[in-house]
Structures are given as structure tokens and as C-alpha cells.
């Protein structure tokens, strides 16, 4: 990974909320922004310090002059943590953000205590990844990504089901076309990216920290993996994969109370650094698959 001090800094819009024993870094997905985490902020900030950025070219952050690969974005987050003096953090990432959080954990393990991967994009075979990348190779990439994200939506559920789809669509349409094209191309790069199977598998196993994966069965089907695959690339004994049927690609928005309880339970049980103690997961209403 490129060292932060070897490259020009990319100012990231971010907020810092709450206080507590741990710091959570909340990383949104492609063609999204930090508003994604609105249903989590109050609940998480009551126990933890939160850093909530917009990635380059997303939300209120300026576009990047460098590349738009997960490694580039992870570098930007490493730089943000350097400026805030935070770390190690629990890196919570959704969709492409889960890929970026995982890259940060692999390349800068000193900065990441644990990863929470929500509907991660990694684990696709080459055909699925190529089809996803090709879908935005059109004259209006922002409209294409809005359609793709709508297909990921899953069944309407939760208190905001009436308006969330329209909100997500309009936000995707507000992302610059070149940012969409470059971000999606970098994400699904079969040669250099950490997303496509089987090359991503040994890379993801380099995450030595605990990893909690939260996804739907539809997400597993879209990636072409079984319920045990995420656990197989998360070697730490406290890692777990929670699979649910009642939400689509955005479980943190569609079932926020259940999601928040799950994350807070899991972070409360994280191993204490230096003690060798293993945590204990209480999964609330979600079924847990592949837990040690």
C-alpha cells in the first residue's frame, strides 16, 4: 500500500461523534455517502467514538486526482486516521465500503482492531464481476449504478420502506459519472482488486483481526457463494457470519434496531488486545452461520 505521506492528501468530509472505549470508522459503499449510517449514529455514539467520512468524489468530499480502487480509498482513510489521531478502529463497511475496510485491515493492521462487513462486494466470480463492471459502461453511468443498486434493494421492509428507495436512487444519480465509472472499474478489477474469486480468497485471509459479516441470502446468491464462504476467509476465532432473510442489501437501514443490537453486542465481546481472551457473540434475532 502507498504510504499516506508519499502522496497528496485528499481532504475528506467527515464528522466525529460520541465517545467511548472504542472508535468505529463507518465506510459507505459505491455511489453512496455517509448519510447511509444515519440509523446507526445515535445508537453507536452512545457507546463508541465514531468517525464517519464521505469517500473521495462521494457526498461532500472532493474528487480524487489519484485512482479509485479499494486500495486508493483505503489509503485515504489511513490518512484521515492519521489526521484524527485515531486507531486502531473497528472498520464498519457496507458494500464496496466492506472491501475498502478489509483492504485497510490487510495493509494497515496497526489501524484496524476488527472489521464489520455489511453486504460485502467481495467473493464474486469473474463472470459476475465483469457483468457488474460492464453495466456502467454506458453513456450515463450514474443512471446505470442507480438501477443496479435498486436491483440490490430486496423486498421493501422496515419503517422507511416507502421512501428509502427513492432517496437512494436520487443520491446515486447525484454521483459524478466519472466517479461511478472509475470506482466500479477499480472495484471489479480481476487482476488487481480484492473482490474476484479465487484471487481474493488468500488476500482476505490476511485479515488477522476478527471479522463480522452481515448479509442476506440474496447477497450470497448474487456473489455466487454459500453461507460458509465468508467465514472461511475470516480466520480469527471470534469471526462470524450472520445471514438473514428479512432484508436486502441495506440491512442497517431496513432493520436498524436488529442491526444496531447485533453490532453493539459483537463489539462489546471483542477480544481484549494483549489478553488472548475470546469474545462471545449474542446475535439477537439474526441466525448465525459458521460461528466457532
CATH class: Alpha Beta
CATH topology tier name? Rossmann fold
Tally the helices. Answer: 12
Amino- and carboxy-terminal Cα gap: 32 Å
Under the CATH scheme, which architecture would be assigned? 3-Layer(aba) Sandwich
What are the salient characteristics of this protein?
alpha/beta; 8 strands; eight-stranded mixed sheet; 292 residues; globular; single chain; disordered N terminus; Rossmann fold
Structure characterization notes:
This protein has 292 residues and is an alpha/beta fold. The chain has a single domain, classed as Alpha/Beta hydrolase fold, catalytic domain (Rossmann fold, 3-Layer(aba) Sandwich), CATH 3.40.50.1820. 37% of the residues lie in helices and 14% in strands. The protein has an 8-stranded mixed beta sheet, sandwiched between helices. Strand 4, helix 3 (96-107) and strand 5 (112-118) form a beta-alpha-beta unit. Helix 1 (38-45) runs parallel beside helix 12 and helix 2 packs across helix 3. It starts with 13 loop residues before the first strand and ends with a strand. The relative contact order is 0.15. Residues 1-8 have low confidence and may be disordered.
Amino acid at each position: 500500500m502507498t504510504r499516506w505521506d508519499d502522496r497528496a492528501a485528499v481532504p475528506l468530509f467527515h464528522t466525529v461523534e460520541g465517545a467511548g472505549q472504542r472508535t468505529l470508522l463507518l465506510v459507505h459503499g459505491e455511489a453512496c455517502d455517509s448519510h447511509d449510517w444515519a440509523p446507526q449514529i445515535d445508537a453507536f455514539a452512545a457507546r463508541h467514538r465514531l468517525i464517519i467520512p464521505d469517500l473521495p468524489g462521494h457526498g461532500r468530499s472532493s474528487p480524487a486526482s489519484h485512482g479509485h480502487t479499494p486500495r486508493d480509498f483505503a489509503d485515504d482513510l489511513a490518512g484521515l486516521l492519521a489526521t484524527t489521531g485515531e486507531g486502531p478502529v473497528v472498520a464498519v463497511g457496507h458494500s464496496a465500503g466492506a472491501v475498502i475496510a478489509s483492504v485497510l485491515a490487510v495493509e494497515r493492521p496497526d489501524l484496524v482492531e476488527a472489521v464489520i462487513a455489511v453486504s460485502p462486494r467481495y467473493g464474486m466470480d469473474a463472470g459476475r464481476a465483469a457483468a457488474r463492471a460492464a453495466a456502467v459502461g454506458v453513456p450515463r453511468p450514474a443512471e446505470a449504478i442507480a438501477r443496479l443498486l435498486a436491483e440490490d434493494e430486496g423486498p421493501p421492509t422496515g419503517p422507511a420502506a416507502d421512501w428509502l428507495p427513492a432517496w437512494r436512487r436520487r443520491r446515486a444519480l447525484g454521483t459524478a459519472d466519472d466517479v461511478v465509472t472509475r470506482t466500479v472499474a477499480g472495484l471489479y478489477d480481476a487482476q488487481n482488486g480484492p473482490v474476484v474469486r479465487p484471487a481474493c480468497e488468500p488476500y482476505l485471509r490476511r485479515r488477522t483481526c476478527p471479522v463480522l459479516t452481515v448479509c442476506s441470502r440474496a447477497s450470497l446468491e448474487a456473489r455466487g457463494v454459500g453461507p460458509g464462504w465468508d467465514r472461511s476467509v475470516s480466520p480469527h476465532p471470534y469471526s462470524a457470519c450472520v445471514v438473514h432473510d428479512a432484508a436486502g442489501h441495506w440491512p442497517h437501514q431496513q432493520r436498524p434496531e436488529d442491526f444496531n443490537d447485533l453490532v453493539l453486542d459483537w463489539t462489546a465481546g471483542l477480544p481484549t488486545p494483549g489478553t488472548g481472551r475470546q469474545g462471545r457473540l449474542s446475535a439477537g434475532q439474526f441466525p448465525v452461520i459458521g460461528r466457532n
